[in-house]
Amino acid sequence: MDAIERAGGQSALATKLTKTAKESISHARVWNWINRGKKAPAELCPLIERVTGVACERLRPDVDWAYLRSTVASELTQPIPSATPKEASHG
Fold first, then answer.
1. Do 10 and 34 meet the contact criterion of CB atoms below 8 Å apart?
2. Residue 13 · residue 40 · CB < 8 Å
3. Is the dihedral of CA 78, 20, 45, 51 positive or negative?
4. Which among 20, 30, 42, 72 is placed 20 to 30 Å from 4, CA to CA?
């Protein structure tokens, strides 16, 4: 897996992911992705991409990343509902 090489090894990737993820990613979990034929979870691929530079499309070619990226992009460009302005009371 290119991401592991770019990160500096399995432990280094696990450490980098743990520092930026909302959960602890163990060395054993990364090992399983490689040695037990398991794939990195799709939800972690954007994080792996961020810390290693290896595109999600290379990590999980079975996921329709173009669709997911466009969906997220359209959600990010939706206007934010304006808050109701608080009335200032000047006594």
1. yes
2. no
3. positive
4. 72
pTM of the model: 0.72
H or E, element range at 35: helix 27-35
pLDDT tens string 35-71: 887 888 888 899 999 999 999 999 999 999 988 878 7
Contact 33, 40 (CB under 8 A): yes
* C-alpha dist (Å) from residue 10 to 36, 64, 70: 14, 26, 31
Polymer length of the chain = 91
Domains of the chain as residue ranges with CATH: 2-67 (1.10.260.40)
Nearest 5 degrees, angle CA 42-CA 69-CA 64? 55
